[in-house]
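Q: Protein A?
A:
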Amino acid sequence: MKIAFDVDVLAKQMSISDMVHQVADWGYKYIEQSPHPRINPFYKHPLFSRECEAEYRKALRETGVEISSFICVYRWSGPTEEHRRMAVDNWKKIVEIAVNMGVQVINTELSGDPNQPELCNGMWFRSMDELLPLFEKENIRVEIQSHPYDFCELNDETCDMVKSYHSDNLKYVYSSPHGFFYDKGKGDVRHMLEYAGDDLSHVLFADTMNQTIDCRYILNPPGVNATIHQHIGLGEGEVDFAGIFETLRKMDFAHKTFRVGGESIACVSLFGYPEKMAKQAPETRERIEKELLGR
């Protein structure tokens, strides 16, 4: 199992070189490269200039850190055909970048409009039918997660979409800070992880509050068409991490390998409090090592 750190919080405050060195200083061997304005920006075409690539490669050599996975977020579920076509072009470019950097795993979202679920569902399958041959050709493992305010927020339905392809190149991401959206507030982590089963290749670790409980979050005006969640330190919210770790041990998640992309990935995905990161990032890595690797 690769234990990675999602560098979203670092990318906003430091250079690529400093970002890589910081991850190494916190004891991580792997980076999950979330959307970065110079590499793989949200929704837009990937970039990654020669200068940017050279800076990244140099920092990786200096630290011994590796990229476990890229995260990309493109509107491959539409809701318009123009959105979808541009997203497919973006996908082709991020796959090219991943292959060039020796990265076999790309983690992504459904990225649709919750107000048009039927249309976006069809658009997603259209995009997947078009892109899966490319993923197979380039030996890329693409991992899908549903996300708050997506056309599908549910764990079981998203798993069923992934499983419908019977493909070694398509797997599932369970994101613990999204879990209350995944089953409409029940938070039954054991069921959700077990339902993903052998298609679970990636788990994101962060805490959050249960948004379905009255006044956990207050939105104005009441009833606004939006969702809210957090990526805070483990134990600061209401996620059942004892259940997550127990179930992952039962599933032997830490020792799973996949035909495409190799090892499973456990990624620390803390965003909310950069001022706490120097303490929380190493602590979370150490807890994952203790709970899943027995260190």
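Q: Protein B?
A:
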Amino acid sequence: MPELPEVETVKRTLNGLVAGKTIASVTVRLPRIIRRPEEPEAFARLLEGQTIHGVERRGKFLRFLLDDYVLVSHLRMEGRYGVYPSDDPAELHTHVLFHFTDGTDLRYKDVRQFGTMDVFLKGEEWTLPPLHKLGLEPLEPEFTTEAFRRRIEGRSTKIKPLLLNQEVVAGIGNIYVDEALHKAGIHPAREADSLSRQELAKLHEAIVSTLQESVEAGGSSVKSYVNGQGERGEFQFQLVVYGRKNEPCRTCGRPIEKTVLGGRGTHFCPHCQKLKGKRPVRKRDKK
């Protein structure tokens, strides 16, 4: 599934491709992609005549800013957007086509068919699913060490599943949680409330730097991900633990191990990321 760096890269490339274009009509070939409004015909009517003024990102979601509406799109496992001449034949698995007045199309292709699209009146998207409960944005100024600590401290959940919770931190998934935990030297099965303030500060820094480095590299193309121009990312060549089971750790040379936490495959180095217990609570001496 595309995570924050990949969706951020798609956002940036799409802004250069579709900003300023006006939608003449919409073709929906797979109705279940459309969630709001439920009827594909109503979805198409709302968007006809609307101009795309820009594309933004919230977590793993894209927000297409129109005249009167906001289109919220999630790529899920393998969704992708591309711009084509309107007279080009649509490729297999192309499910939604936005026909522009300039003779081009924005086309949504999704082999797995898990992607979603919702249309809201401007501002309404923040009060309803799927955006209303998303957590902190890790590349925004409000993602401070203190704000991160407040979200984590006092919770007994294992740290990896907690970081995958989009209501805690929005946008990071399996790849970048594994990478950030390794960079911070924290075992993914550590309980969140066992982490010291110093460890949380180090983890905060690791999350930000890992995501920034991936965005600069155009994201990770570990499966089928490409940006809005059909280009693959390059960060997969910099991955330290993710997808490297039994390969030597780039830090210590010991084999990378893989386990399952919260139903997700998890890569880590048992030497660099030692599993520690909770910090002991010291009781006051009795008088």
